Amino acid sequence: MSIHSYRRFPKSRLLFSCLLCPLLALGILTTTKAEKPIQQDATALSPDFVIERELKGGETHTFQVSLVAGQFLYAVIDQRGIDVAVTVIGADGSQILKVESPNGRFGPEPVVMVSDAGGDFRINVSSTNKQALAGRYELKVIALRKATQNDRDHEVAQRAFEEAHLKLRPQRTAPSRRAAIEKYQTALHFSRRQVIVTGRLLHFSPLEPPSWNRVNSAKLWNS
What we know:
Elements: H1 3-8, H2 11-35, E1 43-44, E2 50-55, E3 60-67, E4 71-80, E5 85-89, E6 95-99, E7 106-114, E8 119-126, E9 135-146, H3 149-168, H4 174-198, H5 214-222
Parallel strand pairs: 1-3
Antiparallel strand pairs: 2-9, 3-8, 4-7, 4-9, 5-6, 5-8
Helix pairs in contact: 3-4, 4-5
């Protein structure tokens, strides 16, 4: 461009260009920064991990555990004055399971799972009631190991209890009631066997597993 051509370039347009370039650059940087995903801090779980925390209504606390395929995780969230729901999110972002036992603001919420694939899993402990008063809970890792056959049976029993309580029981029909009782009995059978073999009670419901019978299982339907 010649000197004469440069002089013919309107001063207002030149001034506009000078002002626009920095703004465009700033906009690009701002957009890039906004699109960067925000990672929520998560507390890492490990064998024999124990922590007690306060949780308020509507809050969610996130924990993370790294598992390999075929690894068994057994953790218990003990509610101490606040009702919580526990969800496990897989490495691909999908929800693997949800635990919400019929025990109100006190008692255990057990997480029992054998990982099908390796990766980082998130465990969310949430208070679904935004109006709930603050309470406390304890999270304890009871087992984190390569799964045994007994561990796999434990997972089957836990899934049976969860299906009975969360899926079948709310339907309140005669067929779903019979199916729920059968699922409760599956969990009861495994729990009784554990008591005989190890002397330990497992966490399935507010009822102590050894005292369960067909009538007690049916009572859960109307609770």
